[in-house]
Design a protein that fits this description.
alpha+beta
Length: 163
């Protein structure tokens, strides 16, 4: 049984995620269990956020469905061609958006959101299988350091949960 580790001193976000998602025996249920814990950890780790979670690719389609998250009720379906999450899924590149109201095609699940950071998660074949999404009510909340940190987490999730 994995022990909750949120708030332990001395552990980086990456180390905490690594402890949460190890081991994984390959089941879909456990993948979602681990993603639930990671969403909660992100919620606790980042200040001034109003949503943290995942959208998961639906099979081989170009469509994302709501996965584990923390925050208000969210959009359940996002096509690759729509919004910040769709752009990250389409390009396979992180999207650091300082002001979502200036982003063409932004999907406003929560009107209080003003900035967003979305990081794609890719499988061993290089296909986007999910995105990690963080929203904030503050304009320009997320930094390049946040992006780098979450890209490391996404790489870890890819290796541990989609290998």
């Amino acid at each position: 049984m994995t022990t909750p580790i949120t708030g332990q001193l001395g552990l980086s976000l990456y180390d905490q995620v690594a402890a949460l998602v190890d081991p994984w025996e390959g089941s879909l249920e456990r993948r979602y269990c681990h993603l639930c814990n990671v969403a909660a950890l992100l919620w606790a780790h980042f200040s001034e956020v109003n949503w943290t979670g995942f959208y998961v690719r639906e099979g081989i389609s170009r469509h994302l469905v709501l996965g584990p998250f923390q925050g208000k009720v969210a959009c359940t379906d996002i096509d690759f061609e729509r919004g910040v999450c769709g752009k990250a899924a389409t390009t396979g590149q992180s999207q650091l958006v300082k002001d979502v109201h200036l982003f063409p095609g932004h999907i406003a699940c929560d009107g209080a959101s003003n900035s967003e950071l979305v990081v794609p998660i890719v499988d061993c074949c290089g296909q986007v299988v999910a995105v990690m999404d963080l929203d904030s009510p503050l304009v320009d909340r997320f930094t390049e350091d946040d992006q780098i940190s979450l890209e490391r987490v996404a790489s870890l999730l890819s290796q541990r949960l989609w290998s």
